[in-house]
Amino acid sequence: MEKMLDIVEAIASENGLPQNQVIEAIKDSMIKMAKKEINESGNFIVLEDSITKDLRLVQKMIVCDDNEFTPEMKSTHIPLSEASNLVESVSIGDELEYQINLETMNRNAVNNIFHDINFQIQRLNEQEALRKIEKSINHIVIGIVIYVDDNGNTAVEIGETRANLSLKNRIKGESFKIGQPIRCVLKSARITRNGLQIELSRTTPRILEELLMLEVPEIKDGDVVIHKVARIPGEKAKVALYTNNPKIDPIGSAVGTKGVRISAISKELHNESIDCIEYSSVPEIFIAKALSPGQIISVKIQKQSEENQKPLAIIQLAKSQKSKIIGKSGVNIRLASMLTGYDFELHEIPDKEQQEDNRNEAIEQKEEKKLGLESLESLFKGKA
Q: What angle do CA 3, 113, 13 make, to 5 degrees?
């Protein structure tokens, strides 16, 4: 272990780690080895010698009265009579330190130290990488696809770390090629038995929020605020926006001239359809906007019951608007519910045209009945 502190400095520099963390890792490895090879209950410490640039492993023993010494104490205590043979001037309660020469240890013990040090350094590297990447959680990161397995799970390289984009976190229907740059939201990062695990996602609503902030300056600057995003990945999304600046159109800002901004975001999300609506603090108005492109007649908010977690909104609508409000496969009404936090109960009423037709038909039937009665009356009068 000659010039161990020089080795520590080299390891720290090579891995970009603080020297004190590397020293603590090495100390921990030496103590674990001593407990395993010498005595599990022993009081071992590692001392730094700045002159020799070495780390010294020592065992501490407390001097006790011969009459109080028991076999159970031999790992941490030494009888006064025995201590007196080792040290000229010693008293009960003194603490003696015995240096352990690692060169006298068997080769396996020394190898175990180095294996454990390597493991500790690897863990320090992972912790340092985790500390750096935690800042990007819930934000967009750009990575390079390096591998796609048979199950569709994608390995992505982000800087010097590797992340995983699982099939469940990919937009349905999209595919990637090795070497392709992709944008994802960093969903989570943690250290497991298998090392640093980084999970990415392209299905979370957060990626749409992040893309809007990147694409729309008014959102990035805070002039336009995203109230909430609801997505069915790869199919459709609804974004509720508002602004406190009367000079700014929140929907126009997000959509952009000729839809250029929202089209760029849609393309990034595998051509996902995106509806931008203006948020209102009045639930009835917000619900009506969220259900667009369908037009509704009225909204009535029901009080939330204990059985239903979501409050209920009774929607009156013309029969001709039902398909627009529900949307293909129910996507539109599902997104509106996710966006507003309400469940919906639809009440259809006949269209105005249908009502008019029904009214005209009733009048015609009444006239026909009247004419029929008049004819019968004329017939009977003639016979009389």
A: 50
Residue type, position 244, single letter: N
In degrees, rounded to 5, the angle at the alpha carbon of residue 81 between the alpha carbons of residues 75 and 86 is 75
Residues 124 and 107: their CA atoms lie apart, in Å, by: 26
pLDDT in tens, 205-259: 999 999 999 999 999 999 999 999 999 999 999 999 999 999 999 999 999 999 9
Q: Give the count of alpha carbons within 13 A of 263, CB side only.
A: 5
User: Which ranges in the chain belong to alpha helices (H)?
Assistant: 4-15, 19-37, 80-86, 107-133, 205-215, 217-220, 250-255, 260-268, 283-290, 322-326, 331-340, 352-383
**Alpha-carbon dihedral of residues 22, 101, 76, 79, nearest 10 degrees?**
-150
**Tokens coding 235:** 């199919």
Residue 310 and residue 289: Cα distance in Å, rounded?
19
Query: Once rounded to an integer, what is the mean pLDDT over residues 47-75?
Result: 87
* 16 and 69 Cβ atoms separated by less than 8 Å: no
pLDDT band at 128 (very low <50, low <70, confident <90, very high): confident
In this prediction, residue 2 has a pLDDT band, given cuts at 50, 70 and 90, of: very low
Looking from the CA of 318 toward its CB, the CA atoms found within 13 Å total 11
Q: Closest Cα partner for 347 from 313, 309, 310, 302?
A: 313
Q: Which long-range contacts (CB under 8 A, 24 or more apart) does 33-41 make?
A: 33/105, 33/109, 33/112, 33/113, 33/116, 34/59, 34/100, 36/109, 36/112, 37/105, 37/106, 37/109, 38/100, 39/75, 40/75, 41/75, 41/76
Task: Taking residues 175-192, report their average pLDDT.
Answer: 95
Complete DSSP assignment for 83-129: HHHH-SS--TT-EEEEEE-GGGS-HHHHHHHHHHHHHHHHHHHHHHH
**Dihedral angle over CA of 148, 153, 158, 161, nearest 10:** -100
C-alpha dist (Å) from residue 275 to 131, 206, 258, 355: 37, 16, 14, 32
Q: What angle do CA 107, 99, 66 make, to 5 degrees?
A: 120
